[in-house]
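Lab notes, practical 5.
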Amino acid sequence: MTDPKTVRVRFAPSPTGTLHTGGVRTALFNYLFAKQNNGHFVLRIDDTDKARSTKEFEQDILNGLKWVGFDYDEICYQSERSELYKKYLNQLLTENKIYVSKEEIKKESDLPEVIRFRNPNKKVKFTDLIKGEIEFDTTELGDFIVAKDLETPLYHFASVVDDFDLGITHLIRGEDHLSNTPRQILMWEALGATMPQFAHLPLILAPDRSKLSKRKHASIASLNNFIAEGYLSEALINFVALLGWSPQGEKELTNPNEEILSLADLVKLFKLEKVQKSGAIFNVEKLNWINREYLLRLPIPEIVAQTEIFLPELKNLPESSKLNLIFKILLERIHTFGEIKKMAGAGELTYFFTTPEYPKELLKNQNYFTALIELIEKIPDNQFTSDKIKTAVWDYATQKGRGEVLWPMRIALTGQKQSPDPFTVAEVLGKPETLKRLTHARDL
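Output from the prediction step:
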């Protein structure tokens, strides 16, 4: 393992948009690697694009990292480091490694002169911790631009200077940055800097195997969407960790196929060198399955708190026992807390709070309500549970035809064609309200 005294990694998002799902995974893998090596996790805000960078997007990034639970050891802003970039631009100018180039103005927006890097036109080699040995011929890059002027460095130069100045030892980033590496290596060499080790992560692919894009795949490409949809941060991190990496084969696992892993588990199990080389497809069904597994493990107080965010009406129910029953019903039908809000919006939960309205024809059959009411009236008030209710009416329903008896019972209690079983609904409603609704249906 790398010497823990030297490990320094960074996550360098640009505040020109909301936090991307791919960015979350990059931050996660940097965070895990730092934790494993007792290293430093640096957050660098790449805000040199003054036209597009905003404080709102910066805050979105900070909020997102807080939501997923990634604590960074230090934070820096490129916008506050201009004197540092100017220092190294002057140094390289003095050493004739960069030069001011008079440019032919082809468009009104072009600059009359820029600062270019004097390319030695050579091959560069490096070992990527994920992709292995890589070689580039830099000749085709030509003398590339590193700054518009001494006050305005371009991204590649500022990034190299920052990584050098911050002592970054490992660059763990998406493979879309792989093409940047040759020119960055040339700049590191020109600065006389020790190059970091590279690890280029495979891209996250959309279900159609295209590159995950906020524009084309808004529902899964932005972290904010998962927060709004009521996913649990622990579940999302668990899922994102499995995009391009697998814990299978790790000796620490009791079950080699275990996929429900906490952040602490990931710190123990994650191995950067075992990240796969090919792209990882974003599977929403798997994310939903993982999120449901986390939902089922939540303590009731946390379920209450999360549910009330999406369904404030639950606060109007004074009896905690009824709340627990409603949560039991909801957890049988949802993958995220956001689905509760959708269910409520579609009227699927209204019957818990108000008497349902429905056309008489939906009942189909009113012949058995009188007998059903008599059977339910016999259940002691202190034993009015779904099991007792089912026991009381089951034989009768079987005798007369379960569909003939239980369908009208469901409609009378919920007004919905689809709902939890009528016995559970009746328990939540309580005996008086259940009898009231059954009587109303009989008398329609």
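Observations recorded by the TA: Residues 208 and 394 are 48 Å apart (CA to CA). The longest strand covers residues 40-45.
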